[in-house]
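Task: encode each sequence below as structure tokens.

Item 1
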Amino acid sequence: MTPAQREIYLVIDEWWKRNGFGPSVDDVMTMTGETGRGNVHRKMLKLVELGICKGLKNRPRSIRPANLRVRDII
């Protein structure tokens, strides 16, 4: 995992802990200071591809840390 991917993972993890759902690409951009929506989206998809996060295709805010079970939140 690259440092930029780690930063995005930490944002996703913290967002889930606070809100109970995943952040949007714009939320991640705001929290990390990134300016390119495509770059952030690509890094988020790479986290899913690596198995670090899980997410549903074409479902905004569905990305979550892989070790988080949704059943534990409800």
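Item 2
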Amino acid sequence: MSVTQFENERWSNDQQKAVFRHHATLEFVDAGPVLDIGCGDGLFMSMLQEKGLTVEGVDLSSVAVSAVEKRGLKGTVCDFTEQPLPFTDGQFATVVALDVLEHVYNPAFVLGEMKRVARDAVVISVPNFSSLPARIQVLFGKVPENNRPNKGHVYWFNWTGLGQLTSVAGLRISKLKTNVPREKAFLIGPFLKALALLSPNLFALSFVVRCEFI
């Protein structure tokens, strides 16, 4: 099954719900127009529009882009994993990719194209494949959730790897948000959040970063 077929099947049977990455990224996006890479069914695009920002989306999946258009938003089918984005340099103030880069074989290429069409900032979210829960699962001989085939993940990120990728692309991480297990639990949640800032590789479940140009 090709990546495009995988994504078409996924969006034929899936519908997004607003979760941590959406809410965190919304706080990091302060200027439009915005381009949403791997926009899926357009949920985050709708959130940006409600914030008063102009937004466009691109996705591998024609099924996903059809869902975007049903929301009255502008979407383009594009294999951004291998082809240059069909936009001019600096066309968008902010370019976002939420849980997208771990699905592509060459995230450096995709990130380079994101930077090219952005004027001010790039915002990325990726799961942390080195999180404490993942390490515990491996210790007990289990395959961590993020590594299972149904996820479609082909590139494994942790905090170190994300920092290296952004640096090579000529980007500097200026803001970071993380989520942790049981983050709403009294005392435990705030404690784990503090640990995630001290040691993101170990305690964060995922990362949302805003990157500025070096």
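Check on item 2: The longest helix spans residues 3-13. Residues 72 and 84 are 25 Å apart (CA to CA).
End of task.
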